[in-house]
Specification:
alpha/beta, Rossmann fold, 7-stranded mixed β-sheet, 7 strands, globular
């Protein structure tokens, strides 16, 4: 059994000082939301064994804040340029590439629309309410946790996963 966690970067500033999208940083809400999601992950193990993070500044900041909130967690981390702007096919290639490291629990921190499209494509069953909410959007700091009845990441397939959790800071606030 394998578990995939897809986390969209947290909310960002509108424009980077450089003018480059790649350089946009988290705004105040994004910093809070990234830490909130890290806290949620800590309370809902298992935690990832390997985290693949887009090299965009906002994705790296999201990981740093989430990881700090998961105190005591020391997964392997890979910063991958190919996650920036990746579509579902490229994201799937990254996931299959993780087979060499053989993590049981893999996290990808990246961007829409690719993460959202991948999540929709991978889910074949599971939490119906979460699926309905996810169909509309994967917001900033949105997290999708999908379980696959596979032994190797090379065997991951569209519609092969079961949605375990769909979580966002807004949904967590509504649950309080």
């Amino acid at each position: 059994m394998r578990r995939l966690l897809l986390l969209r970067h947290a909310k960002t500033e509108t424009d980077a000082p450089s003018g480059r999208d790649f350089d946009r940083r988290l705004d105040d809400r994004g910093q809070i939301d990234a830490a909130t999601m890290g806290g949620w992950l800590k309370r809902h193990p298992p935690l990832p064994d390997l985290v693949c993070v887009s090299t965009a500044i906002r994705a790296r900041q999201t990981w740093d804040l989430a990881a700090a909130a998961m105190t005591g967690m020391v997964p392997a981390v890979a910063h991958l340029e190919e996650l920036y702007g990746a579509g579902p096919a490229e994201l799937l290639a990254v996931i299959r590439g993780a087979a060499s490291e053989d993590p049981q629990h893999l996290m990808i921190i990246g961007h829409n629309p690719g993460l959202h499209e991948l999540a929709i494509g991978l889910i074949g069953r599971g939490d119906d309410e979460g699926r309905a909410a996810l169909d509309n959007n994967l917001p900033t700091s949105g997290l999708v946790v999908i379980e696959f009845p596979i032994e190797d990441w090379d065997d991951i397939a569209f519609r092969g996963g079961r949605l375990l959790h769909y979580v966002s800071p807004k949904l967590l606030k509504g649950a309080e």
